[in-house]
């Protein structure tokens, strides 16, 4: 015990020693972190002089009391799993249900629940529809496990998955994936707006009882602009209004869906009107009709014959685009409709406990959503004939107990998805600006943030980009682009976690127990394969853009981003593995390579000699050796460590392939002997 006490006392003196003569071991030292100056401008060293739990708690309280006096300084807490997170911040007001579960469920319900499940059954049939839902679930669930591992890997701030990946992989990969996520959310938001316009025009457009909406490209663009402006105004009020709105919208949508399910069991056989906006059906009627007449499909109620009719695929023309559908295009439409997996993670800056809320809320939401989708697929296939499913994507209105229920549910769910996409994309853009990933280009985004953390400048810029996506046209035309961007983003997330796990990175220690490199590999392979199946051209363009961003960011410096890079961890992992394979007993003269040690006293006068030896090495090992004379005294600075960066800079400037080896010795002779003995492989 006495020996242990002496060791502990020595460590304590070493850790807490300082240059000042009057500095005591118990004095806390404050250091500045430029990259965290916006959120955590300083920290206090924990008091390690005692090993008791009470002392640790007192130190933590001391940190919190000091941080409370600092602007924007959050309170540091720890969970039972040991994960630190930032809470008690004025921005962090959301909990699991309103902040994660409801946004994810509503984002996935938005287009597909009332508008696109019938579309998938109409063309793909029951068997292929269930197959496509299974593929979607597999990719999303594997990606979700990777996201949960990132979310439980330490303190999380704003920016969602971008923040998690950039802190784990470095600014090059994190910034590139962040840009990819930003544009995926922007285009997905445009698709949601286009879907809401389509629902309004089909329900209240030409041929309907109301006939309140006109049906042309520019009228649809005008309706989309109005919806987008309403979303903008709502998002400018901040996340608190958004969370309150999404919770009530979720209750409303759930009630509407319950009424839809009840209607399947209550309503009997009836005819269903084919809307006049389906110009293709009226130009190619199955029977002769007058110009003023309507075409009708048939709702049969539960029928074995209807179920058999809808069992297999029947790919025909989509009346909204005029294109012939196939497995890839239908999968693209389905997957683009359920890309709200990261809607909860995008709100990480507003969540009270993101490391807890994101895994619990996301997993609960994805299982809940896919149970609803599978149930609805089977109900539609058993009750509605294929002609109705193919020519009226909003037939649920006509077979509901009260027709307005469905349009109310569509408006509520899709508008919620518009809000979620606009807020999520703006938060990612704000995080990119705060980290100065693109230098001063986005500085105006950082300046345009309110006291309460609402990035109004980022919201307005995102609104403008969403407006531009509306020029693409109908929802099904935007769908393949959305699918490609999100699949590629999910591929990047899974690949990131796979690299971190295989590299055994010490900074990757998630407390989420159900992640493994197998699920990350499965999610990455599934995402990239489906990416090329949906559209090889779009996939190639998106991958080219991603690689271009990675190369561009690799060439610039990041003064605020001192997070390290995964590339260095992977290089170290591989180099260490191959160095261990080098066996000196297997050396042979045929494969001999020179290992040259050049002792340099003054590099200024040895430039030519360094160049000469560099030319001589011929694929061998070249080491620049330098000896510093002196003694390694306790508490003195290491002279070799101070000069080492200058020698590395010399190698970079001379563009030679060499290593630097320095030592500290009492005499030059002793130092040279050390270098000769220890240098080389």
Automatic annotation (TrEMBL):
An example Gene Ontology CC term for this record: membrane
Top-rank lineage group of the source organism: Eukaryota
Signal sequence bounds: none
Name the UniProt record assigns to this protein: Solute carrier family 12 member 9
Locations listed in the record: Membrane
Transmembrane segments: 100-124, 130-152, 173-197, 217-238, 245-266, 324-345, 357-381, 401-423, 455-472, 478-500
Record Pfam families: AA_permease (PF00324)
Database matches in InterPro entries: AA-permease/SLC12A_dom, SLC12A_fam
Amino acid permease/ SLC12A domain residues: 106-597
Primary localization class, coarse: membrane
Topology of the protein relative to the lipid bilayer: Multi-pass membrane protein
GO biological process terms, semicolon-separated: cell volume homeostasis; chloride ion homeostasis; potassium ion homeostasis
Annotated keywords: Membrane, Transmembrane, Transmembrane helix, Transport
Family to which the UniProt record says this protein belongs: Belongs to the SLC12A transporter family.
């Amino acid at each position: 015990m006495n020996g242990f006490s002496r060791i502990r006392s020595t460590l304590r003196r070493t850790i807490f020693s300082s240059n000042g003569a009057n500095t005591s071991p118990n004095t806390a030292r404050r250091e500045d972190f430029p990259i965290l100056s916006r959120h955590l401008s300083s920290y206090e060293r924990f008091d390690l002089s005692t090993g008791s739990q009470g002392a640790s708690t007192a130190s933590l309280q001391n940190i919190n009391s000091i941080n409370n006096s600092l602007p924007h300084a959050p309170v540091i807490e720890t969970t039972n799993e040991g994960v630190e997170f930032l809470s008690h911040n004025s921005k962090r007001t959301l909990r699991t249900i309103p902040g994660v579960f409801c946004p994810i469920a509503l984002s996935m319900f938005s287009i597909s629940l009332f508008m696109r499940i019938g579309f998938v059954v109409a063309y793909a049939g029951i068997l292929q529809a269930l197959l496509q839902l299974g593929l979607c679930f597999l990719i999303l669930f594997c990606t979700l496990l990777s996201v949960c591992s990132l979310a439980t890997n330490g303190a999380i701030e704003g920016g969602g998955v971008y923040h998690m990946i950039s802190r784990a992989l470095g600014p090059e990969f994190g910034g590139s994936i962040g840009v990819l996520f930003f544009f995926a959310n922007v285009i997905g938001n445009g698709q949601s707006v286009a879907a809401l316009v389509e629902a309004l025009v089909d329900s209240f457009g030409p041929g309907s009882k109301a006939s309140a909406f006109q049906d042309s490209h520019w009228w649809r663009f005008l309706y989309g602009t109005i919806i987008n402006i309403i979303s903008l105004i709502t998002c400018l009020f901040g996340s608190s209004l958004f969370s309150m709105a999404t919770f009530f919208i979720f209750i409303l949508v759930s009630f509407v869906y319950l009424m839809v399910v009840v209607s399947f069991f209550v309503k009997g056989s009836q005819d269903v009107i084919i809307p006049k906006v389906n110009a293709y059906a009226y130009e190619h009627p199955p029977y002769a009709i007058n110009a003023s007449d309507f075409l009708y499909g048939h709702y049969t109620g539960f029928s074995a014959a209807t179920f058999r009719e809808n069992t297999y695929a029947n790919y025909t023309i989509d009346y909204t685009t005029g294109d012939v559908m196939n497995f890839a295009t239908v999968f693209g439409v389905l997957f683009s409709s359920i890309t709200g997996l990261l809607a909860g993670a995008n709100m990480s800056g507003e969540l009270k406990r993101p490391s807890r809320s994101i895994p619990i809320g996301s997993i609960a939401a994805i299982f809940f959503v896919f149970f609803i989708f599978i149930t609805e697929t089977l109900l539609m296939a058993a009750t509605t004939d294929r002609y109705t499913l193919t020519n009226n994507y909003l037939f649920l209105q006509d077979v509901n107990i009260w027709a307005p229920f469905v349009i109310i549910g569509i408006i509520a769910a899709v508008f919620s998805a518009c809000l979620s996409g606009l807020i999520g994309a703006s938060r990612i853009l704000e995080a990119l600006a705060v980290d100065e990933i693109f230098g001063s280009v986005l500085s105006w985004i950082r300046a345009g943030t309110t006291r309460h953390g609402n990035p109004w400048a980022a919201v307005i810029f995102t609104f403008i980009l969403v407006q531009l996506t509306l020029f693409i046209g109908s929802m099904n035309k935007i769908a393949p682009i959305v699918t490609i961007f999100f699949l590629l983003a999910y591929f990047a997330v899974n690949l990131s976690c796979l690299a971190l796990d295989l590299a055994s990175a010490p900074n990757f220690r998630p407390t989420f127990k159900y992640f493994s490199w197998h699920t990350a590999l499965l999610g990455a392979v599934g995402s990239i394969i489906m990416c090329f199946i949906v559209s090889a051209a779009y996939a190639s363009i998106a991958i080219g853009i991603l690689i271009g961003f990675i190369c561009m960011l690799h060439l610039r410096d990041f003064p605020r981003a001192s997070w390290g890079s995964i590339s260095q961890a992977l290089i170290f992992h591989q180099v260490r593995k191959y160095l261990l394979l080098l066996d000196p007993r297997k050396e042979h003269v045929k494969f001999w390579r020179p290992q040259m040690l050049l002792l340099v006293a003054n590099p200024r006068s040895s430039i030519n000699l360094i160049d000469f030896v560099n030319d001589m090495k011929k694929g061998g090992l070249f080491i620049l050796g330098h000896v510093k004379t002196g003694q390694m005294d306790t508490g003195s600075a290491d002279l070799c460590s101070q000069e080492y960066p200058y020698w590395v800079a010399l190698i970079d400037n001379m563009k030679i392939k060499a290593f630097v080896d320095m030592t500290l010795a009492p005499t030059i002779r002793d130092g040279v002997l050390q270098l000769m003995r220890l240098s080389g492989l």
